[in-house]
Amino acid sequence: MIRVVHYLNQFFGQIGGEDQAGVAPRAVANPVGPGMALQAALGSKAQVVATVICGDNYFAEHPQPATEEVIQLIRSFEPQLVVAGPAFNAGRYGPACGAVCQAVQSQLGVPAVTGMYPENPGAELYRKDIFCVETGPSAAGMRQAVSAMAVLGLKLAAGEVLGTPEAEGYLPRGIRKNTWAEKTGAARAADMLLAKLQGLPYRTELPMPSFERVSPASPVSDLSTATVALVTEGGIVPKGNPDRLESARASKFLKYSLEGIEDLSGAEFQSVHGGYSNVFANEDPDRVLPVDALRDCEREGKIGRLYKYFFTTTGNGTTLENGRKFGQEIALVLIADGVQAVILTST
User: What residue ranges define each of the domains in the chain, with the CATH number in brackets?
Assistant: First the structure.
């Protein structure tokens, strides 16, 4: 029976939401939350002997001490396999899962596996060093993610030789190995070229990284005469969120008037952005959308004027495709209204 320790954040560890994101690492000697599904997926081959839980904020704000504390707790249960997450597209949880898996492998010599959406920053940070199952963006795919992690984890614990990332379901680690093929490289290359010329599907054996190049905007020649707009992905909306902006995975952006508003009051505006503690943003929404500072700049002649509307959406888990679409649509409106500069704020 393989001994498994499961790492979770405070939410999936059933301690609480953002109000508990600062909790220090702790352990319980049984599966918790997703650990129940993990145990079911592992079957009779392994047992989840403990769950180690740490708050997202605690880990993000104290990465080195938090890692050491988590590793000490994991060590005490003498695991033969560690499973972290899955983290899906959670921006703090992903790097924590990656750091835990990397430390488990290097310090304890124990195999580890996690699961993330490819756009999670943790995947980019740690995919070369750990085994990370590809998941969907949200917990809606929990069952499939846990099942894939269990299968891969059992293979790692058994010391089996793994196949390709495509065959095993983990994110590519940048490792290339020589294998025997039916055709020579020249013949395979010719086949791909012919397929490409004929418009047929083909698959390269050496995918190259693709980087989007964005040309920087020209500097504003004279801010004292410029119209400046405020755009945010910090989820600032009127109190009560009347237009139902999503707290994560936004499907839209919204536009609200700034006419007659000198600063944003917490009684009239709020942040609906998930994935971080928005207590301070709700106390004073100007901390995310600095209307008060721009009004001061307007009065002091540092800018020509503040644009009469602001645009808002949430960046939490929002896809690159939607983000690109939102930006293009907002830009068309701003250009048409003669805006010369934009201040884009985040959380």
Answer: 2-168 (3.40.50.2300), 223-345 (no CATH)
